[in-house]
Amino acid sequence: MTVAGFRRMALALEGIVESAHMGHPDFRVNGRIFATLKADNQHGMVKLTPADQAVFIRSHPDAFAPESGAWGRAGCTQVTLKTVDAEQLGEAMTLAWQSTVNAPPPRTKPRASARKGKK
User: Fold this and answer.
1) According to DSSP H, which parts of the chain are helical?
2) What is the mean pLDDT of the chain?
Protein backbone atom coordinates (compact mmCIF):
# COMPACT_ATOMS: atom_id res chain seq x y z
CA MET A 1 0.00 0.00 0.00
CA THR A 2 1.18 3.50 -0.78
CA VAL A 3 0.34 6.87 0.76
CA ALA A 4 -1.59 7.70 -2.43
CA GLY A 5 -3.50 4.42 -2.19
CA PHE A 6 -4.39 5.03 1.47
CA ARG A 7 -5.59 8.55 0.62
CA ARG A 8 -7.59 7.33 -2.39
CA MET A 9 -9.25 4.62 -0.30
CA ALA A 10 -10.20 7.07 2.47
CA LEU A 11 -11.56 9.69 0.08
CA ALA A 12 -13.66 7.08 -1.76
CA LEU A 13 -15.89 6.70 1.31
CA GLU A 14 -19.03 8.82 1.55
CA GLY A 15 -18.86 12.24 3.19
CA ILE A 16 -15.08 12.37 3.70
CA VAL A 17 -13.12 15.57 4.09
CA GLU A 18 -9.33 15.60 4.08
CA SER A 19 -7.87 17.99 6.63
CA ALA A 20 -4.69 18.20 8.70
CA HIS A 21 -3.97 17.57 12.35
CA MET A 22 -0.64 17.94 14.13
CA GLY A 23 1.26 18.29 10.87
CA HIS A 24 -0.12 15.32 8.96
CA PRO A 25 -3.19 14.57 6.82
CA ASP A 26 -6.35 13.27 8.43
CA PHE A 27 -9.66 12.07 7.06
CA ARG A 28 -12.91 13.08 8.72
CA VAL A 29 -16.58 12.32 8.50
CA ASN A 30 -19.14 14.42 10.39
CA GLY A 31 -16.25 16.43 11.84
CA ARG A 32 -14.56 13.40 13.42
CA ILE A 33 -11.24 11.82 12.46
CA PHE A 34 -11.44 8.16 11.43
CA ALA A 35 -8.06 7.79 9.67
CA THR A 36 -4.74 9.60 9.37
CA LEU A 37 -1.51 9.39 7.42
CA LYS A 38 1.64 9.78 9.50
CA ALA A 39 4.31 12.31 8.59
CA ASP A 40 6.83 9.48 8.07
CA ASN A 41 4.90 8.31 4.96
CA GLN A 42 5.34 4.74 6.23
CA HIS A 43 2.29 4.46 8.49
CA GLY A 44 -1.34 5.39 8.76
CA MET A 45 -3.93 5.07 11.49
CA VAL A 46 -7.51 3.85 11.50
CA LYS A 47 -9.82 4.38 14.44
CA LEU A 48 -11.35 0.99 15.18
CA THR A 49 -13.33 -0.25 18.14
CA PRO A 50 -11.08 -2.08 20.63
CA ALA A 51 -12.79 -5.37 19.65
CA ASP A 52 -12.18 -4.81 15.91
CA GLN A 53 -8.63 -3.71 16.65
CA ALA A 54 -7.92 -6.99 18.48
CA VAL A 55 -9.17 -9.01 15.50
CA PHE A 56 -6.99 -7.13 12.99
CA ILE A 57 -3.89 -7.32 15.19
CA ARG A 58 -4.39 -11.03 15.79
CA SER A 59 -5.09 -11.76 12.09
CA HIS A 60 -2.45 -9.45 10.56
CA PRO A 61 0.22 -8.63 13.18
CA ASP A 62 2.70 -7.45 10.55
CA ALA A 63 0.25 -4.82 9.24
CA PHE A 64 -1.66 -3.62 12.34
CA ALA A 65 -0.59 -2.59 15.85
CA PRO A 66 -2.18 -0.49 18.59
CA GLU A 67 -1.09 3.13 18.78
CA SER A 68 0.74 3.91 22.01
CA GLY A 69 -0.97 4.78 25.26
CA ALA A 70 -4.62 5.57 25.79
CA TRP A 71 -5.22 6.17 22.08
CA GLY A 72 -4.21 2.60 21.31
CA ARG A 73 -6.32 1.21 24.14
CA ALA A 74 -9.29 3.15 22.72
CA GLY A 75 -8.89 1.45 19.30
CA CYS A 76 -6.56 3.76 17.37
CA THR A 77 -4.67 1.28 15.23
CA GLN A 78 -1.39 1.88 13.43
CA VAL A 79 -1.21 0.57 9.87
CA THR A 80 2.16 -0.29 8.33
CA LEU A 81 1.72 0.67 4.68
CA LYS A 82 4.42 -1.57 3.21
CA THR A 83 2.87 -4.73 4.72
CA VAL A 84 -0.89 -4.09 4.56
CA ASP A 85 -2.74 -5.16 1.44
CA ALA A 86 -5.66 -3.32 -0.11
CA GLU A 87 -8.26 -5.82 1.10
CA GLN A 88 -7.07 -5.68 4.74
CA LEU A 89 -6.89 -1.89 4.72
CA GLY A 90 -10.22 -1.54 2.94
CA GLU A 91 -11.95 -3.65 5.56
CA ALA A 92 -10.32 -1.81 8.47
CA MET A 93 -10.97 1.62 6.96
CA THR A 94 -14.61 0.78 6.24
CA LEU A 95 -15.15 -0.35 9.84
CA ALA A 96 -13.47 2.84 11.11
CA TRP A 97 -15.65 4.96 8.83
CA GLN A 98 -18.85 3.13 9.85
CA SER A 99 -18.27 3.57 13.56
CA THR A 100 -17.34 7.23 13.08
CA VAL A 101 -20.18 8.15 10.72
CA ASN A 102 -22.65 6.69 13.23
CA ALA A 103 -21.16 8.54 16.21
CA PRO A 104 -22.81 11.73 17.47
CA PRO A 105 -21.27 14.96 16.14
CA PRO A 106 -18.33 16.31 18.16
CA ARG A 107 -19.06 18.72 20.96
CA THR A 108 -17.82 22.22 20.45
CA LYS A 109 -16.17 24.12 23.26
CA PRO A 110 -17.85 27.38 24.25
CA ARG A 111 -15.88 30.50 23.41
CA ALA A 112 -13.93 32.06 26.31
CA SER A 113 -16.31 35.03 26.46
CA ALA A 114 -19.28 32.66 26.76
CA ARG A 115 -17.62 30.73 29.60
CA LYS A 116 -17.16 33.96 31.54
CA GLY A 117 -20.85 34.83 31.19
CA LYS A 118 -20.24 37.52 28.57
CA LYS A 119 -22.27 37.91 25.43
Assistant:
1) 3-11, 50-59, 69-73, 86-101, 112-115
2) 90
